[in-house]
Amino acid sequence: MMDLHTHSLHSDGTCTPREIIKLAKKKEISLCAITDHDCLDGVQEAVEAGKKYDIGVLAGLEMDIEYPVEMHLLAYGFDLQHLQLREIMHRQEKLRFERNQKILDRLNSLGYPVQIHRDERGKLISKTHIAYALVQAGYVSELSEAFHHFLGPRGCAHIQLKRVTAEEYIDLIHQAGGICVLAHPGQMKKHALQAIEELVPIGLDGIEVYYSMHTAREMSMFREIAVGHNLMITAGSDFHGAHRKEAQFGEIAALAALDPLIQETEQHLLKWVQY
Ligand code: AMP
Ligand code: MN
Ligand code: MN
Ligand code: MN
Predict the structure, then answer these.
(1) Which of 38, 66, 93, 137 has the greatest number of C-beta atoms within 10 Å?
(2) What's the distance, Cα to Cα, between the start and end of the chain in Å?
């Protein structure tokens, strides 16, 4: 069973990489990846934990892509020390820091000052942390409201973070020896098919067909598209720990495990496991 989409406290999850791998073991997952947003800080710990608990752990990453609508690409099995990858991660970290400052300034000038409380074991600040701060300050009652009124695309404190293009990202990951998978295409709604058509010629390797929040119809549609393009099929929960209760370990992995193509992917990806 595989779960190739999880977030640790190094981005906007609430568990350490080790806790995630331990949980994966409990759920009988045999291949796992921590795919923090814009951040590689949790990978090494996950790989170490993988050795300890005897689970295949792939280097993982999820990045938002410069595209007319929201697009996320997952990457697996790349060389963590790849110089250009490191440089781009560093650049994104700086851009994120500047974006966050702009959001906080905007909130402040609108009369909604907030104080970010971050688990000190991680350093990345995401909109999820800012959304929590808005809840804690009492301006909204839940996270989704914070995104609706303040941080989402139509929110009053929405600031776009400059992203890498799909071409740049896929090239980079390939140069670093890894593969690229389109995350949760169901979230792209009517734009998904067009996006896949554009991504295939520039080297997309796979589609996250099995995803916690995909409907059965979406899964069968994306599966068919993946097969048609000879793409790999993956499964991911998008586990965020306590930050996203609907995305739990286990269920999607168990469903996906019934698919022989998932077994094929797992066999194929085992050679990227970093022991
Ligand atoms: P950032 O990477 O800092 O731009 O933050 C993006 C993160 O915010 C995403 O990875 C999601 O986890 C979270 N997010 C975005 N939109 C929403 C939403 N409408 N409700 C809850 N979480 C969201
Ligand atoms: Mn997230
Ligand atoms: Mn995503
Ligand atoms: Mn994710």
Answers:
(1) 38
(2) 19
Sequence-distant (6+) residues with CB within 8 A of 251 are: 212, 237
Q: Which ligand is nearest to the CA of 247?
A: 4
The predicted model scores a pTM of 0.95
User: Which residue CA neighbors atom 12 of ligand 1 most closely?
Assistant: 128
> Which contiguous run of DSSP H or E holds residue 213?
none
Nearest one of 246, 212, 232, 221 to 75, comparing CA atoms: 232
What's the rounded mean pLDDT across residues 141-161?
Answer: 96
For 57, how many CA atoms within 13 A lie in the half-sphere containing its CB? 27
Q: Identify whether the C-beta of residue 273 lies closer than 8 Å to the C-beta of residue 57.
A: yes
Ligand 1, atom 6, residue with closest C-alpha? 127
Q: Give the pairing of strands 71-76 and 179-182.
A: antiparallel
- Where do we find the tokens 């994306």? 222
What is the β-pairing status of strands 164-165 and 71-76? unpaired
What pLDDT, in 10s, does the model give residues 45-93? 999 999 999 999 999 999 999 999 999 999 999 999 999 999 999 999 9
What is the average per-residue pLDDT within 166-195? 98
Closest Cα to atom 3, ligand 1: which residue?
Answer: 126
Q: Provide the phi-psi class of 2: left if phi over 0, else alpha when psi is between -120 and 50, else beta.
A: beta
* Least distant ligand from the CA of 187: 3
- Ligand 1 site-directed mutation target among 5, 6, 8, 12, most atoms within 8 Å of CB: 12
Instruction: Measure Cα distances from 41 to 47, 179, 251 in Å.
Output: 12, 19, 27
Q: Which two tokens stand for residue 62?
A: 């999820």
Q: Which atom of ligand 1 is nearest to the CA of 64?
A: 2
